């Protein structure tokens, strides 16, 4: 993991080795403008703890992520927006360090575009899935 951290662009930003447009910083988190924004005000909120996926981050290092994202929404004046967090390349994660996007959606052309491929199910399948997941939570 040390070598992944050493080469991680977000870890370098946290350490101040790479500059960023820092918006909010706490003991456990950092928020900054995305350098490849989907819309005006697109920002990232990251835990300072290095982990590739959400399940790699201890709960106590996630406590201020959503409150920071909420502050950014208010600061940008976004009335419509997405909070997005991807895990793994197949889920569109590019940087291997957990990060949350706050993406204003000012109009149909800017911001996040989403496909929502809903799947058909029936109540028996849904009940079985519910019981399986519920037993593991």
TrEMBL record:
Ranges spanned by the short sequence motif Histidine triad motif, renumbered to the chain: 97-101
A Gene Ontology molecular function term of the record: hydrolase activity
UniProt keyword annotation of Ion transport present: no
PROSITE patterns: HIT_1, HIT_2
Taxonomic superkingdom: Eukaryota
Keyword tags: Hydrolase, Magnesium, Nucleotide-binding
Cofactor field: Mg(2+)
GO BP annotation list: nucleotide metabolic process
Pfam families registered for this protein in UniProt: HIT
Reactions performed catalytically: adenosine 5'-phosphoramidate + H2O = NH4(+) + AMP
Domain spans labelled HIT: 9-112
Active-site annotation: 99 (tele-amp-histidine intermediate)
Family of this protein: Belongs to the HINT family.
Name of the featured protein: Adenosine 5'-monophosphoramidase HNT1
Organism: Thermothelomyces thermophilus (strain ATCC 42464 / BCRC 31852 / DSM 1799) (Sporotrichum thermophile)
């Amino acid at each position: 993991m040390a070598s992944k951290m050493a080469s991680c662009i977000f870890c370098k930003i946290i350490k101040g080795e790479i500059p960023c447009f820092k918006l909010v910083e706490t003991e456990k988190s950092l928020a900054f403008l995305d350098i490849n924004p989907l819309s005006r005000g697109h920002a990232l909120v990251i835990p300072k703890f290095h982990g590739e996926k959400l399940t790699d981050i201890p709960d106590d290092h996630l406590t201020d992520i959503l409150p920071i994202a909420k502050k950014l929404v208010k600061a940008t004046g976004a009335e419509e927006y997405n909070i997005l967090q991807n895990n793994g390349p197949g889920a569109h994660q590019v940087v291997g360090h957990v990060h949350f996007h706050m993406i204003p959606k000012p109009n149909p052309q800017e911001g996040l575009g989403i496909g929502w491929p809903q799947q058909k199910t029936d109540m028996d399948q849904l009940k079985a899935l519910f019981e399986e997941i519920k037993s593991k939570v």
